[in-house]
Amino acid sequence: MLRTPTGGAGNGTATADDRPMSIGTVLVQLRDEFPEVTISKIRFLEAEGLVEPQRTPSGYRKFRRGDVERLAQVLRMQRDHYLPLKVIREHLEAVARGEQTALPSPDGERDLIDGSWTGGQGRATVARIGRTELLAAAEVTESDLDVWESYGLVVPAADGGYDAETVTIARLVADLGRFGLEPRHLRAMRAAADREAGLIEQVVAPLRRHRNPQTRAHAEATAKELAELSVRLHSALVQTALQVRLH
């Protein structure tokens, strides 16, 4: 859920919702629902025409409440429906024209979406997607995906499909590539992730072997919580290491 700044209302003055916001403030508001969003991501969505913040005479971005809501819509469509930005942009333009449009989902079904967007937080449309859907959702080429698979960054299932989370991985690999980080540079991250997953598996293995369905369900919840803590620790360690190197 987006954080809503508080402010006076009904007194004829501008409320906090009406005040322009910096890109840093927008990031803070979005991160409650989208913890992986970055300033670079917001700038990229602007460059792709998904949001058009105002600019001060000195060139600083100033976002309004409507801009933040639009960014949230875009991020939900990417997260919940794995849609390429072109499709999202066309849909939002149609909504702005007052049209009610059908938004395709990767499994071929169509979800009727209006301007109020009702996608639930964290809800995945499908558990498995095909190669074509992955390429479209991550907006990458066949050759990109082939290289990433050769380095073990993206791993298809036995049936040739991909877990929905692979879309996120592909997008992140592509984003890092724009900074000059090639797949060969990311192998260490993959190896570290495998080691962390192995450690978590050791913790929950006794619970997963239990016959009680509730205990096995608790194992899955514990694994998820441990994974989230691991990601937060990794992020904090990287930030600390950077501070040491940059100061």
Strand-and-helix sequence, N→C? HHEEHHEEEHHEHHH
The end-to-end distance, rounded to whole angstroms, is: 35 Å
Derived from helix and strand composition plus strand pairing, the structural class reads: mainly alpha
What is the overall silhouette?
A: globular
Number of H/I helices: 9
Task: Name the descriptors.
mainly alpha; 247 residues; 55% helix; MerR_fam; two-stranded antiparallel ribbon
Written overview of the protein:
A two-stranded antiparallel sheet has the order 1-2. It has helices spanning 23-31, 39-47, 65-81, 85-96, 131-138, 142-150, 165-177, 183-208, 213-246; strands spanning 54-55, 61-62, 101-104, 110-113, 128-129, 162-163. α8 (183-208) packs antiparallel against α9. With 247 residues, the protein is mainly α. The chain contains nine helices and six strands; from the N terminus they run ααββααβββααβααα. Keywords: DNA-binding. InterPro entries: DNA-bd_dom_put_sf, MerR-type_HTH_dom, MerR_fam. It comes from Streptomyces brevispora. It holds the Pfam family MerR_1.
Topology (elements, then pairings):
Blueprint: H1 23-31, H2 39-47, E1 54-55, E2 61-62, H3 65-81, H4 85-96, E3 101-104, E4 110-113, E5 128-129, H5 131-138, H6 142-150, E6 162-163, H7 165-177, H8 183-208, H9 213-246
